[in-house]
From TrEMBL:
Name of the protein: 8-oxo-dGTP diphosphatase
Cofactor requirements of the protein: Mg(2+)
PROSITE patterns assigned: NUDIX, NUDIX_BOX
Organism, as annotated: Anabaena azotica FACHB-119
NCBIfam families found in the cross-reference section: mutt
Enzyme class: hydrolase
Transmembrane spans: none
Family: Belongs to the Nudix hydrolase family.
Highest taxon of the lineage: Bacteria
Domain Nudix hydrolase: 7-136
Catalytic activity as recorded in UniProt: 8-oxo-dGTP + H2O = 8-oxo-dGMP + diphosphate + H(+)
Keywords attached to this entry: DNA damage, DNA repair, DNA replication, Hydrolase, Magnesium, Metal-binding, Mutator protein
Amino acid sequence: MNTITTPPHKIIGVAVIWNDQQQILIDRRRPEGVMGGLWEFPGGKIEPGETVEECIQREIEEELGILIEVGERLITIDHTYTHLRVTLTVHHCRWLQGIPQPLECAEVRWVNLDELDQFTFPEANSEIIAALRVVGSGGR
């Protein structure tokens, strides 16, 4: 008997963090593990009882050691990989203080919007980049 297994579903809060130079913070996943070595917008899984905004703030502090202000929602994306279904709720964020450190990733980097093409992101992130291009930095 065939049972169709649906991949696990994770709801993720994602931060597009802008600095005063209109640059965006991206981080590179550690080489081991799923989608290792790819670049991404930082964020993480929403815990029970947590709002998206609280999740994003907590994850950014845990992963990068910086304080941010979570702003408007940019986009929500549903994407199914072979091993996982994700719902990415993406918010514009503003860097407030601290120096980003790769606490839970391989590398962090500030980049301009037009430099994003030079980095390899997981498939679902292409929609975030497309949405950013539409609003530009004026959407903050």
